[in-house]
From TrEMBL:
Transmembrane portions of the chain: 12-33, 64-84, 96-114, 126-152, 164-183, 203-226, 233-254
Keywords: Membrane, Transmembrane, Transmembrane helix
Protein name according to UniProt: Histidine kinase N-terminal 7TM region domain-containing protein
Coiled coil: none
Keyword Hydrolase appears in the UniProt entry: no
Organism of derivation: Tractidigestivibacter montrealensis
Length: 610
């Protein structure tokens, strides 16, 4: 048998013995105060006279049980004091002491009503109405105790239920105390001499009874929900003890002859206090004989040290204190600091976290087993280290990939520019070799056109060569830099007779490969304008971080259709490797081209060969 089971068994035996003693005392008291039937003349009595009972009266009504009620009030006070010493929960303790206070006041009210000479029927009725103050608040306090024991009192619905219960109880008391004005609880004629025996229950009475029954049912239901499985049998015993009392209350409400002659107030108080005491004794409500017992049963390694180093309290689970921990705890105890917690660990006891709390007269030392936390921390540290090494490898791999991509991009761009420049240089050599030698006007005009084309080819080679240099130093083209390139090209075109203007509007930056493709497309359009009559060329470049678009609009008075078709074919060839799209509109006197390219993928493209 475990220690907890042994303690539970000893409590059951102690409760049974206490119940037997109380029964014996009750029998003796009934003999003393006259609640038992009158003995026969030939029989013997331990005590034949009692100052508390009227002569020749052996009934069990309120007047005949005055002695028991006189004893009940101090007994309730003593029970309230014992609750104050035993109950470990402050809220439940206050509510149970409230029950004890209400019981004492109830007995005092009954004694005043039946033992004091009162000639006013209205005052007697008011004293009768006062019975319902403890009768209303006692089940309410029991319900609140069970709600607290079940650890449900902080729930929103429990807070709402508590407020509704208080409001309902207050309304019942107000309804009963003002019954003389409306007679909605009890209906009687106070002018009759027998009005205390002849009355009728109205709806207010049955409403109050329904509230009491609901609160007691909630009390037992919450105790059942809050208790451990092995205590469910105890709750069944409490219910079995409460069932006869419920039958007795029902008989009293129905005015049964047996119940109506008894002292209902005394019996009600005794049963309620007995049930609450059993709930405390068997652990349904938090109760310990002494606070030291409550402290020692805590499932913690906790010790309270005095300033001289002696152990004032220790739980059953407390272990030995290492010397370094003991010294530091003493320093905290002697420093008298209570507003902070000192946390530390020592190698003497691995996987243990010590917390020192400053308390009045010393310090509390709590040792917590953090083995699971240390294991999780070790696993997390190893995982973090693996992730750190993986990140280093990924960063190195990313750097290598970026460098390879840059080298491949440079190689593609260099190959594309090298091929384009090689073709342009060969074409320039062919033009220079074929220049007319004569001095006639036609030959001079032809020579001028050929030299103009050579000049345009030289400018093209210059721009393409600059792209190779920029790829190594500054490969990104922003708005200002691209505007400068297009302005220089427009200036070159204007110098050879093409009216040209360029506008650049960019939100991001363009790689050199994209600029190379745009410049190839620009040269294709410019090669048409060079041999047209009265050419006007407008360029507009716009884009964001994902796409770039160049629009070229050429208007002429007259142009060569063959050159126009050749330019369109060159534009399509330029965009073939760059995954760009071309929108082209041709007419005998105009050319409108819209080139759209993805910035991220355009680095794989290059200019077409001419």
């Amino acid at each position: 048998m475990s220690r907890s089971d042994d303690t539970f068994a000893r409590k059951v035996i102690a409760g049974a013995c206490a119940g037997g003693v109380l029964l014996c005392l009750a029998l003796l008291a009934m003999q003393v105060f006259g609640s038992m039937p009158s003995p026969k003349p030939s029989s013997t009595m331990l005590l034949r006279w009692s100052p508390f009972r009227p002569p020749d009266s052996y009934g069990v009504g309120p007047s005949a049980t005055s002695g028991f009620m006189i004893l009940m009030a101090p007994a309730a006070a003593l029970w309230g004091f014992s609750v104050h010493m035993r109950c470990s929960d402050a809220q439940i303790r206050h509510r149970l002491k409230g029950v004890a206070l209400l019981v004492g006041l109830w007995m005092l009210d009954v004694l005043i009503k039946y033992r004091c000479p009162i000639n006013s029927p209205q005052l007697i009725a008011f004293l009768w109405y006062l019975y319902y103050v403890p009768m209303t608040f006692i089940p309410l306090l029991c319900l609140l105790c069970a709600l607290r024991a079940a650890a449900l009192d902080a729930r929103p619905w429990a807070v709402f239920l508590r407020r509704v219960a208080w409001a309902t109880s207050s309304a019942i008391i107000a309804l009963v105390l003002t019954n003389g004005m409306h007679l909605q609880v009890f209906s009687f004629d106070i002018s009759r001499p027998d009005w205390q025996e002849v009355y009728v229950y109205n709806w207010g009475y049955w409403f109050a009874v329904a509230v009491y029954v609901a609160e007691y049912m909630g009390f037992f239901a919450l105790l059942l929900a809050a208790s451990r499985r092995r205590l469910h049998g105890v709750i069944a015993l409490l219910v079995m003890a409460a069932v006869p009392f419920v039958a007795y209350c029902l008989m009293y409400a129905l005015r049964h002859e047996f119940a109506i002659k008894t002292n209902f107030s005394l019996n009600y108080s005794l049963i309620v206090v007995t049930l609450l005491e059993l709930a405390l004794d068997f652990g349904l409500l938090p109760s310990y004989s002494w606070h030291g017992e409550a402290f020692s049963r805590l499932p913690l390694d906790l010790k309270v040290l005095e300033r001289d180093g002696s152990v004032a309290f220790a739980t059953n689970s407390a272990g030995p204190v290492p010397a370094p921990v003991f010294d530091l705890t003493l320093r905290v105890a002697r420093s008298r600091t209570r507003d902070r917690v000192t946390r530390f660990r020592t190698s003497a006891i691995p996987h243990t976290l010590f917390k020192v709390y400053g308390v009045s007269g010393g310090a509390a030392l709590l040792a917590e087993d953090v083995t699971l936390l240390d294991e999780r921390r070790r696993v997390l540290t190893e995982r973090q280290e693996r992730l750190r090494r993986s990140n280093e490898v990924l960063r190195h791999e990313s750097g290598v990939r970026r460098e390879l991509w840059r080298l491949e991009s440079e190689e593609r761009l260099l190959s594309s520019i090298e091929g384009s420049i090689s073709d342009k240089v060969s074409h320039m050599r062919e033009l220079l070799a074929a220049l007319p030698k004569g001095s006639e006007a036609g030959e001079r005009a032809q020579r001028r056109d050929m030299l103009t084309e050579v000049k345009l080819l030289v400018a093209y080679c210059k721009r393409k060569g600059a792209l190779v240099l920029s790829e190594r130093s500054d490969p990104e083209f922003d708005r200002d830099r691209l505007q400068l390139v297009f302005n220089e090209t427009a200036s070159d075109l204007r110098s050879i007779g093409v009216d040209c203007a360029a506008v650049v509007n960019l939100d991001g930056e363009l790689p050199s490969a994209v600029v190379s493709v745009l410049y190839d497309c620009l040269y294709d359009v410019a090669s048409v304008a060079l041999f047209a009559v009265d050419p006007i060329l407008m360029l507009f470049v716009s884009g964001d971080e994902r796409h770039v678009e160049m629009r070229a609009a050429l208007d002429v008075a007259q142009m060569d259709a063959a050159r126009l078709e050749a330019a369109a074919a060159s534009l399509r060839e330029d965009l073939k490797g760059s995954r760009g799209t071309l929108s082209l509109e041709l007419s005998p006197t105009s050319l409108n081209a819209a080139i759209r390219m993805p910035v991220g993928d355009a680095a794989r493209g290059g200019g077409g060969d001419k």
